[in-house]
Amino acid sequence: MRRAPETGTGTWAPRAHLFDVNTLRRIRDFLAAHAPGFARIEAVNPAFERLQVRATLAFDAFRDDGAMARRVNAEIARYLSVWTAPPAMARFGWSLNARALCAHIEAFDFVRGVTDFSVLHLSGDDDGTYALLDTAQSDGRGPHGPAIRPARPWSLPLSVRDHALATAPEIRPEDPVQSGIGRLSIGDMFIVRQRTNP
């Protein structure tokens, strides 16, 4: 069962859309009525894993860099969100090829080049533990690699609202630098959890 949001033609912000408790109960009851007696059925909402592109772009001369960056941001958000993504991303078991995404961006007729390209992948669990991976990662943990896969089988991809896109008049080849906590924005990719003392 899929509950896709309205995307419309205006400004669209990627959001996690969840089923309410009553709908989940009805789904569970339906499945339990049709499953073998030994099966244990649980109906839950999917987890959503956030994806953010970081890149430097060069646009055609005499174009408004700000307007073009907003256009690229919107296209990336649609490409990375389960509701509007290509088939490889619009399902459980999704997979994102970062190089293919970079080529997709470079193929826009108004983009002259892309450099310093990487994709951040934020996943979390029910205990509030988060993992942040970057395709530019090349430290002791090893490279994240060009393919991004979900941390859990029941996770779906969801774009952040704003991607970290910089513009430059000319593109010079530049290797991406792994992102750290200082380059994240609170509430989107940077999660602050409050602890209470007993």
Order of helices and strands: HEHEHEEEEE
Q: Number of helical runs?
A: 3
Kindly report how far apart the N and C termini lie.
41 Å
**How much helical structure, as a percent, in the residues?**
10-25%
Low-confidence stretches: 189-198
Shape: elongated
Structural class: alpha/beta
Overall pLDDT level = 80
Please count the beta strands (DSSP E, at least 2 residues each). Answer: 7
Largest sheet: 5 strands, mixed
Strand fraction equals 15-25%
Rg calc: 19 Å
Overview of the molecule:
- With 198 residues, the protein is of the alpha/beta class.
- It has a domain of 138 residues.
- The strands form two sheets. Strands 1, 3, 4, 6 and 7 form a five-stranded mixed sheet that branches. It has a two-stranded antiparallel ribbon with strand order 2-5.
